[in-house]
Amino acid sequence: MITAMLGALGANTRQLLADWGYAARLFVKLLTLSGPALRRFGLVRDQVHFLGNYSLAIITVSGLFVGFVLGLQGYYTLQRYGSAEALGLLVALSLVRELGPVVAALLFAGRAGASLTAEIGLMRAGEQLTALEMMAVDPVQRILAPRFWGGIIALPLLAAVFSAVGILGGYVVGVLLIGVDAGSFWSQMQGGVDVFKDVGNGIVKSVVFGVAVTFIALLQGYVAKPTPEGVASATTRSVVVSSLSVLGLDFILTAMMFSI
After folding, report:
1. For the whole model, what pTM was predicted?
2. Cβ partners under 8 Å of residue 100, min gap 6
3. What is the 3-state secondary structure (H, E, C) of the chain?
4. What residue ranges do the domains of the chain occupy?
5. Residue 104: count of CB within 10 angstroms of its CB
6. Do residues 149 and 49 touch, judged by C-beta distance below 8 A?
7. CA terminus-to-terminus distance, the chain
8. Closest CA to 111 of 52, 156, 167, 189
9. Residue with more model confidence, 5 or 259
10. Residue 230 CB partners (closer than 8 Å, separation 6+)
11. Distance from chain centroid for Cα 117
12. 216: closest CA among 137, 123, 135, 105?
């Protein structure tokens, strides 16, 4: 029994290392094919439209309600210490540093990431990728690379929209509904938010999240089993792995940024 358990553990470890190695090779190949993909920018532009524009509605609505909640919670918390005029600073820092990139990436993984995995998985199941290889067309360069860069470009833009709409939501609740002074709301925000330290950190996070979420979605679709069950399983796995990766990377990036 012990021998069987050790054998199963060794086989699983070997398979895990093989999967990581394949993912690393695919990632390096995507990077090396970035030049040809970006030279045909029309393909990348179409993917930015598909991934970004079609995700805009859920990003906008979610950002607005997150701003509403931040405005309410922030006001009642700051009011205890007589600092209600700092509501704008609290809302802006919470969004541009943390909530904007993270929540936008999680929503992007659930909507665009799942769509990418299903699309590539169906191409695998329908043998379209195999047909491209038979015609001497590299599917990684023609199919995966434009989608990879489309996701990298789209997510920072969506995160910026999320933060901007969230700040507007905080303004509506804090200033228009509760009655915080509008001048204090904006002046505290302008004086306390640093472009490079706060906004820049949020941009770096959103770019890293865009790379991770898009690559995981493409990888899961590319290696999916060519069956309906395989595509469904790959889509579910893509959302789960992407979401956990975003949260883990957020902790690592936050720790690195605050230690610099």
Report:
1. 0.90
2. 63, 159, 160, 162, 163, 166, 202, 206
3. CHHHHHHHHHHHHHHHHHHHHHHHHHHHHHHHCHHHHHHCHHHHHHHHHHHHHHHHHHHHHHHHHHHHHHHHHHHHHHHCCCCHHHHHHHHHHHHHHHHHHHHHHHHHHHHHHHHHHHHHHHHHHCCHHHHHHHCCCCHHHHHHHHHHHHHHHHHHHHHHHHHHHHHHHHHHHHHHHHCCCHHHHHHHHHHHCCHHHHHHHHHHHHHHHHHHHHHHHHHHHHCCCCCHHHHHHHHHHHHHHHHHHHHHHHHHHHHHHHHC
4. 33-259
5. 32
6. no
7. 51
8. 52
9. 5
10. 121, 125, 224
11. 14
12. 105
Tokens representing residue 228 in the block: 């309906």
pLDDT at 105 over 80: yes
pLDDT digits (tens, 9 = 90+) for 160-198: 999 999 999 999 998 888 888 888 888 888 888 888 888
CA 203 to chain centre: 12
Tokens encoding 115? 């769509």
- Taking Cα atoms as reference points, which of 216, 208, 153 lies closest to residue 27? 216
Rounded CA-CA distance 95/64 in Å is 11
